[in-house]
Amino acid sequence: MTRKTSADFGPEVLEHFDAYVHGALSRRGFLGAVAKVVGGAVAAELILQQLSPQFAAAQQIPESDARIVAKRHEFPSPDGNGTVKGYLVTPAKTKETKKRAAVLVVHENRGLNPHIEDIARRMALEDFIVFAPDALAPLGGYPGNEDKARELFGTLDQARTRSDFVAAARALAGIDGGNGKVGVTGFCYGGGISNWLATQLPELGAAVPFYGPAPTLADVPAIRAPLQLHFAEKDDRVNASWPPYEEALKAAGKRYEAHTYPGTQHGFNNDTTPRYDEAAAKLAWTRSTAFLRKHLA
Measured between alpha carbons, how far is 48 from 46 in angstroms, rounded to an integer? Predict the structure, then answer.
């Protein structure tokens, strides 16, 4: 199947897809809404296939890449679900004895799917120790199906899940081979968690949320980490929370920089779907990895 871009779909279809991805529309609801736009159920089903993730086609770094070591790993999380499980990726051992900073990579609202695993591998190739938690681990882990993953995600105890992310970040600070510094980046749900972790962890070295909702504004004064925030231009749902968040950051004298990418859709960094924007994603990646190096060195 030929990969498409967001320009191949009308704005109403993309709006319905965003609602579907974030749980505001069921699969049936999406298909019904889109069928009214494109003139039939068969066409709507095809559009859903075209908009859905193509993990294998987008993979950049295979797990077998000799430059990395990737494995399943877990850390204790006594205030969460007992353990926080996920995917640990490190640069392959070399003759160097230097310590490396660690980065927590937080997934979208479908758990640790193949795309986020690939992001973790890419980040390890930037010379970081990387851990990507799977919030769905207490429910058996990512189920291999995006619809089922979204369904499971809605049943999570978010208080325990958030405690797991805190436990993971703190465990990374003491991981073997680490320099004691930890940053976080995340996408959509994970972007929101990145913002939230910045309010919870005064020791956090840096936070890089991609199109993530703002944290509770009353908690903004607790932020100590510098922030680099990435937004899609055509993302009204998330962008609505940014002006008051920015105002709170300014009022509290926090260090931050924000970038909005013209013409992009929510999820522009996710290269498994047509909402991916190659130029914006590459620029955002360059900015984010440079920011993490600067503040975690």
Answer: 5
